[in-house]
Specification:
By secondary structure, this protein is of the alpha+beta class. The protein is 29% helix and 28% strand. It has one domain.
Length: 191
Amino acid sequence: MSVKQSDYETVLGDYSSRDRIVSLLSQYRQYLEMIPSMRRPRDSVISIPLPLAKVRNLRTVSGDNLSEVCLNEITPIPCDIAVLMCDPEWKIKMGVEILIFIHRPEEDFSNLLRRWRQSQIYLHKEYEWVMPQTEEHMFSDLAEEIHPLFIVFPQTPDRIKKGLSGASLPYIEYSCETITDNNNLHSFVNS
């Protein structure tokens, strides 16, 4: 059984909220520890689904060819969700960003990995996120660290999971059991 568009859309919709992003990061402890405030985890992350960024000296990869585009181009970053860390008190963006890549229908390992590599190329230059309307006031340029997190499904082919493991890229398998309600998350965060 292959990944369906509805599977992809469910995960994208699910992790578009701050509460669910914190729940997702709780499954990968290294990333959970990057949240600036565990007392106020919801106020410490910004989730941007299908993110856009203003990239200076943008370069794109089409197949194996690299091409240059004009300065300060607004472009979609080929991840599915960008997670930005922010200080809940000062409402300023912190230096760590996590890019989430959801396994898409008909996507094989090389395409999934290429999306991460393309994101690295875009965000290696000077850039500034196009922020959600509620966060437009926040200064949102360059990260000190950018980390990937891949979400796969039980029906994702084993070669993709083996490829991610072999490339030392973290992934989480999404299933109904991965969904944690906010009460469980609240008790986890306060423990």
